[in-house]
């Protein structure tokens, strides 16, 4: 925790901000990329959203009050940026968010950065069939192994609600995967 406090102080200092931001970037870039990637699906879109996320973090770090962990605050920004990106993209294409999800899953097979097999593809299709909140909860727990406590800070909800959402999501995914 001391390291995080020191990093925050450096990030909020005019003289040390740039150097501290480089350390922050190297420490969290990959984790945030994968968090975003599980939401937006496409590598190129994930790169764009990641860049926007770090710009927002850089510009707003002076507003960070320490009410939550720095990691949770950044994940919240990444989550919001991802959802905003998907909403804008769906609106631009004049389709629903569900149709955008379906198209994103279908495009995974042609994404050179997608290394999954048919099982992975079917799992992604199952996840895409879930409501938005269940998708977020499932991705954070299953792929990133986040603790419910951290997820509660990121998504601003109770641990109990998250456990219930995850349990329901798992049941729906199991049902989806065992069909035909």
UniProtKB/TrEMBL annotation:
One BP annotation, GO: DNA-templated transcription initiation
CDD domains (alphabetical): Sigma70_r4
Location of the RNA polymerase sigma factor 70 region 4 type domain: 121-173
A Gene Ontology molecular function term of the record: DNA binding
Keyword vocabulary terms for this entry: Sigma factor, Transcription, Transcription regulation
RNA polymerase sigma-70 region domain segment(s): 25-91
Keyword Transcription appears in the UniProt entry: yes
Family according to the record: Belongs to the sigma-70 factor family. ECF subfamily.
The protein, known as: RNA polymerase subunit sigma-70
């Amino acid at each position: 925790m001391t390291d995080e406090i020191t990093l925050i102080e450096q990030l909020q200092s005019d003289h040390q901000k740039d150097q501290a931001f480089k350390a922050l970037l190297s420490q969290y870039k990959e984790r945030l990329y994968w968090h975003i990637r599980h939401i937006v699906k496409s590598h190129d879109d994930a790169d764009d959203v990641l860049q926007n996320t770090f710009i927002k973090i850089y510009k707003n770090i002076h507003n960070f009050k320490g009410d939550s962990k720095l990691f949770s605050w950044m994940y919240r920004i990444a989550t919001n940026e991802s959802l905003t990106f998907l909403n804008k993209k769906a609106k631009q294409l004049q389709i629903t968010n569900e149709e955008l999800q379906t198209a994103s899953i279908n495009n995974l097979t042609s994404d050179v950065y997608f290394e999954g097999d048919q099982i992975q593809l079917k799992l992604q299709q199952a996840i895409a069939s879930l409501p938005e909140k269940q998708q977020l909860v499932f991705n954070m727990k299953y792929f990133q192994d986040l603790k419910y406590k951290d997820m509660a800070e990121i998504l601003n909800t109770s641990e109990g609600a998250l456990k219930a959402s995850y349990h329901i999501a798992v049941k729906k995914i199991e049902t989806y995967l065992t069909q035909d």
